Amino acid sequence: MPETEVRAEVGSLQEVLAALSDPVRLEMVRRMHAAGAPAACAVLYDDVSKSTASHHFKILREAGVTQRSVIGGQTHQELRLEDVEAVYPGVLSSILAAPR
To answer: Is residue 54 within 8 Å of 25, Cβ to Cβ?
Structure first.
């Protein structure tokens, strides 16, 4: 059973949009959405260092867009689509549906 951190509140609309404004973070979120379940961190990014990826994961988590869990000793990230949509209906789903 995964260990999940206590869920943070979904941030303000400005925080959510700022978190999604970076192309690397947006791609991470798209990959989480495609996975549909907690995904190992390493499969969520390319072409950035592990420390840079950690920074991006932190920004997404602090904005309330994602949550982190540990499964089998490995850290995974999960998109909080339903939580964000409950606070800001249509915002995240529209961003995810937009062409790349």
So the answer is: no
CA angle 41, 45, 15 (to 5 degrees): 85
3-95 in CATH: which number? Answer: 1.10.10.10
> Any idea where the domains of the chain sit in the sequence?
3-95
**What's the rounded Cα separation, in Å, for the pair 86 and 76?**
23
Q: Where are the alpha helices (DSSP H) in 1-100?
A: 13-20, 23-35, 50-62, 81-87, 91-97
pLDDT by position in tens, the chain (length 100) = 455 555 679 999 999 999 999 999 999 999 999 999 999 999 999 999 999 999 999 999 999 999 999 999 999 999 999 999 999 999 999 999 999 8
